[in-house]
Write a structure and sequence with these properties.
The protein has 5 helices and 13 strands. The protein is mostly beta strands and 229 residues long. The chain is globular.
Length: 229
C-alpha cells in the first residue's frame, strides 16, 4: 500500500514530478476578503505573494482600501523568523515579531502545500510523519520552534484540510487556538495541481469562523535567489 506521502505526490503531480521540480518558488497576484472576528465586516484586499519552495520562506504584501485610507500589510517568514507589519501611509501602525509570530508564520508556510506543491519536492528541511490513516504531520526540522501542522488527505491523496493550533490575538492576549485552512479550485500548472482558492478559519470556544478568503488571479515562477533571499 502506498504511503501517505506517496499518495499525496501522486495526486499533486499526476504526470510525474519532473516539471514541478523546476518550480523553486512562485509569485502570485491575489484578491480576497478578510475580517477580524465573526461579527466584523469583511474588508477587501489585493495582494502579491512570494513563496520559496526550497526553504521555509514567504512574503505576503496586501493593501486594504484605497487612497489615504489604504492600509498596507506585510506578513512573512524567513531565516530571521516571522513578522507582521501594518502601515498606513508613512506610519507603522503595528510591527509584531517574536516567538509567537515565528510559530504562526511558519505554520502558515507549512499549510501552503496545496498552493505551492513543489515545496514537498524542493524543500529538504520538511519532515513528514503519518499520524493515523489519513493525516500527515509536517514540520520544518531546521526550525528552532515546534510549529508543525496536520494535513488530512482524501483516499486519492488530495489535501482536504490543514489543521494546527496557532497563536490568536484576542485583545491584548495571545491565545493558542485551533485553526484550519482549505484549498480548492485545483488547476494543473507546471505539472502540479495548484489550488487557486484558499480559505482559513479560527475555531475558538465560542464558535468557528472563516476569517480570510483568497483567490489567486495569476501565478508565475520565480528565481528564488534573485526574488526572495
Amino acid at each position: 500500500m502506498p504511503s501517505l506521502v506517496e499518495r499525496l505526490k501522486t495526486y499533486l503531480f499526476p504526470d510525474g514530478d519532473a516539471a514541478a521540480r523546476a518550480v523553486t518558488g512562485i509569485r502570485t497576484i491575489q484578491s480576497g476578503d478578510v475580517r477580524a472576528s465573526a461579527s466584523a465586516a469583511w474588508k477587501s484586499f489585493h495582494a502579491e505573494e512570494i513563496v520559496d519552495a526550497t526553504e521555509s520562506m514567504f512574503s505576503w504584501d496586501a493593501t486594504l482600501g484605497s487612497g489615504i485610507a489604504a492600509v498596507h500589510v506585510t506578513d512573512g517568514y524567513d531565516r530571521d523568523g516571522g513578522r507582521l507589519v501594518v502601515r498606513k501611509g508613512p506610519l507603522t501602525v503595528a510591527h509584531l515579531a517574536g516567538p509567537h509570530m515565528d510559530q504562526s508564520e511558519l505554520q502558515r508556510y507549512l499549510s501552503y502545500i496545496p498552493y505551492c506543491p513543489s515545496m514537498i519536492l524542493n524543500n529538504p528541511f520538511l519532515d513528514f510523519a503519518a499520524v493515523g490513516l489519513d493525516t500527515l504531520r509536517i514540520r520544518d526540522r531546521r526550525a528552532a520552534i515546534d510549529a508543525g501542522i496536520a494535513l488530512q488527505l482524501g483516499d486519492d491523496g488530495r489535501p482536504l484540510a490543514t489543521r494546527a493550533v496557532r497563536p490568536m490575538t484576542i485583545g491584548r492576549r495571545i491565545v493558542p487556538t485551533e485553526w484550519s485552512a482549505i484549498g480548492s479550485d485545483p488547476q494543473l500548472w507546471h505539472g502540479m495541481r495548484m489550488c487557486r482558492h484558499l480559505e482559513a478559519a479560527w475555531h475558538p470556544p465560542d464558535g468557528e469562523f472563516v476569517y480570510v478568503r483568497i483567490d489567486v488571479l495569476s501565478q508565475s515562477m520565480l528565481r528564488v535567489a534573485a526574488d526572495v533571499r
